[in-house]
């Protein structure tokens, strides 16, 4: 075989975590191949055109991650190729691990981003927009002066530099107290204000979310406000996470990564000479309808995309534990999701706020919304059955995800029992559609298209019964020479986390995978060179030079080369 098919690392799956990892490998100088059996980038976080989404819904029914998929219609919409429908929609905090990786890697120049315009919460049969700054709080006439003082005292506490664990407000067992109760008892906030902070600012999932973890999330979001504008959140254009994953893939390709899409892995064979001479590549992969085999020393894959039936005793497997705060659950978690396409605008301004802003012209015009987040706290809707918060993400033409005059609504909520996602989310969709910006009547907007499905996340520590007997789970081992070397790294599954956290989780987990891989590759290459040296094939000085070369990888992202300067 020529050198074209020999790689240091093969990455399987083009989800956001794996795409960031592949780009980091390539930028660090490793020879990388990036595979995906799909013909598109993004994996379970992909952004699909309308036809691609219909095709995905048809074929994903046999998936272990997606189930109970329903479509209101499979007929194509006008300008259907202009839609970018996200399978796992998300927003990006303006200060955090993902935005840092986007800037440091140079991927930010490959895409566009837009601020989330508004966040609103449904409470006591009212829609309340969440203040985006201290000035907005002081101008808000619906908040009493006493509540403003209490709210400001809490926000000063939440945005401070001191560790929460050292604060007197969290003494005793208060860190583990439900966040809403903590706000009510410690800062004397009323139920409505406490729910707004918990579900619209801290993006809590359920009433049982603990105070300490909610405060840490809130601090990240508060520190994001003002970096790029009034909103702490950005959304990627052309479909958010899927497009961002493709941007990292582009960076990897520029750095020499080889991409093979739309080909299933037929077999993975461990080299028989690996344990003896360690002079050959560790693995040989055969792809369907692909003429050449490819080889590598290390495989990185999301467990859900590793070929079924091939996770046997073919190497030392290391599951990378999540490095980013998640739910902490060790069992599968499920999200009910909904997608709705409409052709009329919404408004997150309540009728009371709208009427108070009128100038006496007799018209009930309300500002239209292009991008926003609408939150239903648990039990806020009498006709709704969700026990967790329901989040609605609205994206319009400003995100380049829909044609002009169209909007996509993404609904999501965490569930713990088998339910119909359509029956669960339909009441919340109907209430959201009643927020028409063009009519004061009770007639709701009629959707052009709806779809509902369940998405199940399997934590890295969870093993299905079909693979439990053949898999080994390692802790983080010492990768010094002579130790058992992990040659397959399984990346953490995207967590069932609040809307703004999935991208940051992908960036942090990718970096954890990168450093584990660097240690493993260093040991593998040193072992091979040492074997060749003992056989007289390579002088000892070459071994030392290669070890020193790998040690020089000191940062996750090396400095970005300024292409304009190079041209000069």
TrEMBL record:
Instruction: Return the GO cellular component terms, semicolon-separated.
Output: cytosol; nucleus; Rab-protein geranylgeranyltransferase complex
- Biological process terms in GO annotation: small GTPase-mediated signal transduction; vesicle-mediated transport
> Which Gene Ontology MF annotations are present?
GDP-dissociation inhibitor activity
Belongs to which family? Belongs to the Rab GDI family.
Bilayer-spanning residue ranges: none
Taxonomic superkingdom? Eukaryota
For region Disordered, the annotated ranges are 461-487, 526-545
Q: What is this protein called?
A: FAD/NAD-P-binding domain-containing protein
Where is the sequence biased in composition, kind Low complexity?
A: 461-475
Name the Pfam families on file: GDI
InterPro entries recorded for this chain?
Answer: FAD/NAD-bd_sf, GDP_dissociation_inhibitor
Species annotation:
Lentinula guzmanii
């Amino acid at each position: 075989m020529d050198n074209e098919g020999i790689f240091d690392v093969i990455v399987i799956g083009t989800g956001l975590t794996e795409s960031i990892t592949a780009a980091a490998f390539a930028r660090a100088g490793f020879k990388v191949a990036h595979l995906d059996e799909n013909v598109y980038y993004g994996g379970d976080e992909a952004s699909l055109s309308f036809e691609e989404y219909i095709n995905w819904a048809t074929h994903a029914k046999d998936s272990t991650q997606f189930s109970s998929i329903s479509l209101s219609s499979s007929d194509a919409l006008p300008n259907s190729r202009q839609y970018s429908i996200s399978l796992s929609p998300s927003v990006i905090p303006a200060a955090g691990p993902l935005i840092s990786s986007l800037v440091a890697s140079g991927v930010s120049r490959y895409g566009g981003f837009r601020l989330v315009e508004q966040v609103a919460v449904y409470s006591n049969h009212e829609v309340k927009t969440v203040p985006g700054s201290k000035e907005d709080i002081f101008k808000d006439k619906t908040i009493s002066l006493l509540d403003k003082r209490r709210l400001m005292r809490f926000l000063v506490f939440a945005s401070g530099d001191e560790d929460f664990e050292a604060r007197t407000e969290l003494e005793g067992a208060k860190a583990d107290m439900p966040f809403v109760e903590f706000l009510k008892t410690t800062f004397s906030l009323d139920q409505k204000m406490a729910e707004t902070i918990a579900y619209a600012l801290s993006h809590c999932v359920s009433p049982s979310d603990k105070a300490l973890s909610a405060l840490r999330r809130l601090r990240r979001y508060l520190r994001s406000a003002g970096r790029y504008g009034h909103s702490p959140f950005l959304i990627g254009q052309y479909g958010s996470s899927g497009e961002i994953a493709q941007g990292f893939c582009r960076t990897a390709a520029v750095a020499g990564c080889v991409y093979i899409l739309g080909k299933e892995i037929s077999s993975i064979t461990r080299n028989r000479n690996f344990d003896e001479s360690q002079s050959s590549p560790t693995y040989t992969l055969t792809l369907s309808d692909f003429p050449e085999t490819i080889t590598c020393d290390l495989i990185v894959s999301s467990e859900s995309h590793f070929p079924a039936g091939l996770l046997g005793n073919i190497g030392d497997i290391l599951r990378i534990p999540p490095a980013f705060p998640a739910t902490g659950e060790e069992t599968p978690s499920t999200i009910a999701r909904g997608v709705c396409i409409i052709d009329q605008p919404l408004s997150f301004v309540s009728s009371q706020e709208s009427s108070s802003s009128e100038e006496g012209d007799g018209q009930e015009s309300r500002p239209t919304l292009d991008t926003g987040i609408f939150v239903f706290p648990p039990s806020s809707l009498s006709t709704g059955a969700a026990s967790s918060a329901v989040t609605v993400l609205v994206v319009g033409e400003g995100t380049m995800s829909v044609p002009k005059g169209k909007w996509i609504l993404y609904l999501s909520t965490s569930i713990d029992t088998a339910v119909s996602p359509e029956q669960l989310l339909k009441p919340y969709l109907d209430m959201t559609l009643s927020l028409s910006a063009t009519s004061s009547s009770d007639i709701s907007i009629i959707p052009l298209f709806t779809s509902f499905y369940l998405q199940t996340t399997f934590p890295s520590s969870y093993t299905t019964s079909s693979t439990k007997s053949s898999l080994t789970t390692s802790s983080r081992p010492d990768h010094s020479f002579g130790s058992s070397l992990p040659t397959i790294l399984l990346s953490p599954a995207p967590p069932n986390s609040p809307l703004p956290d999935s991208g940051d989780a992908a960036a942090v987990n990718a970096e954890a995978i990168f450093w584990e891989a660097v240690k493993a590759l260093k040991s593998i290459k040193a072992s091979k060179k040492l074997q060749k040296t003992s056989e007289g094939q390579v002088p000892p000085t070459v071994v030392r030079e290669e070890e020193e070369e790998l040690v020089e990888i000191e940062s996750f992202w090396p400095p970005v080369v300024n292409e304009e300067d190079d041209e000069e």
